TrEMBL record:
One of its GO terms (molecular function) is catalytic activity. PANTHER family: BROAD-RANGE ACID PHOSPHATASE DET1. It comes from the Eukaryota. It holds the Pfam family His_Phos_1. The active site is at residues 12, 111. Residues 319-333 have a biased composition (Low complexity). This is Piso0_002651 protein.
Length: 333
């Protein structure tokens, strides 16, 4: 079987829509481009990839396989910002010996559809408050999608990957250039996480690799990048500024210096609703854990393999997102 040794997910670089949400009122989402900073982030990701490919540890780890360790399959979302990110990453590995790569554009890797053009301020306020209370995974944006809809696309895409993995000549490294929500849904589907676990995840930084590495003995992939969650924060650590920073990227309002100057949208009410939703979700998770532990304690004949809760597995770490992109992270994992 031609499974790759690595699957690397990378979110596109900073885009115009991340900095100025007003562009969403006039520019189709699939045509929003990278900023200068976004191009710089993507080029840095290309340099990191080059250092990784040059490292002898990669060659040594793949010495038992009859494939080029520097062979790469790029899959990219068709959105402009993802295309640009992919091109900038590839520019970082140009001229490197023995590197071979293929590029496929995959519409199923597009970001969650938030509707065609941004609605009025009043309509957007209602939508985001509803989403906060309803839940991010199942809430369907008017004229758009829910994360559950994205899940269906991801499931179909994964089946395509599994069929391709049947071919012995599949490249050694698979790189998926995509979007924040899509990447989290992909991980949710692949590792069979619950929707509660998905909703606990915070967004993925621009152009930082999320690393999945195949175990040689089992053939299974393990997530080597620890993801940041709301559960990492203490109860008094979920303040409104923390929530504002996180959700400004998804809620289509300006995330930088214009945040405090907006008059056409009641941001504070949205942030409060989101904060309440996070706390409510944490409370539900706590109740589920306690109920599971009680059930396990009553079931004395249960085999040891199921005595521990799936909630007890440590999948995330609070400090990972502060790490800079580096080849050391790829090699050490």
């Amino acid at each position: 079987m031609g499974k790759p040794s690595y699957i690397l997910l990378v979110r596109h670089g900073e885009s115009e829509g991340n900095c100025d949400k007003s562009v969403n009122r006039f520019t189709p989402n699939h045509l929003i481009a990278l900023t200068e900073e976004g191009h710089a982030q993507a080029k840095q990701a290309g340099r990191v990839l080059r250092e990784f490919l040059e490292n002898e540890a990669l060659t040594n780890a793949c010495s038992g396989y009859h494939k080029n360790p520097r062979s790469i399959m790029f899959y990219t979302s068709p959105y402009l910002r993802a295309r640009q990110t992919c091109n900038d990453i590839i520019s970082g590995i140009q001229g490197l010996d023995d590197v071979s790569y293929k590029i496929h554009e995959e519409p199923r890797m597009r970001e969650q559809d938030f509707g065609n053009f941004q609605s009025t301020a009043e309509e957007m306020e209602m939508i985001w408050q509803e989403r906060a209370h309803y839940g991010h995974f199942f809430y369907r944006i008017p004229h758009g999608e829910s994360a559950a809809d994205v899940y269906d696309r991801v499931a179909s895409f994964n089946e395509t990957l599994f069929r391709q993995f049947q071919h012995d000549n599949f490249p050694n490294i698979l790189i998926l250039v995509t979007h924040g929500i899509w990447a989290r849904v992909f991980l949710m589907k692949w590792f069979r996480w619950s929707y509660e676990e998905f909703e606990s995840l915070r967004n993925i930084p621009h152009c930082q690799y999320q690393i999945m590495k195949r175990d040689v003995s089992s053939g299974k992939f393990h997530l080597k990048t620890h993801l940041k969650t709301w559960d990492d924060l203490p109860e008094d650590g979920i303040d409104e500024e923390e929530v504002k920073k996180e959700f400004s990227d998804e809620l289509r309002f300006n995330s930088k210096n214009k945040l405090d100057n907006l008059n056409d949208l009641d941001i504070d009410s949205i942030i409060r609703a989101q904060k309440d939703a996070i706390k409510s979700s944490r409370s539900k998770d706590k109740q589920l854990k306690e109920a599971f532990k009680k059930a396990m304690s009553r079931n004395s004949v249960s085999p040891p393999a199921i005595q521990s809760s799936r909630f007890d597995h440590v999948r995330y770490s609070a400090d990972n997102q502060s790490l800079d992109n580096s080849s050391d992270n790829l090699i050490s994992n």
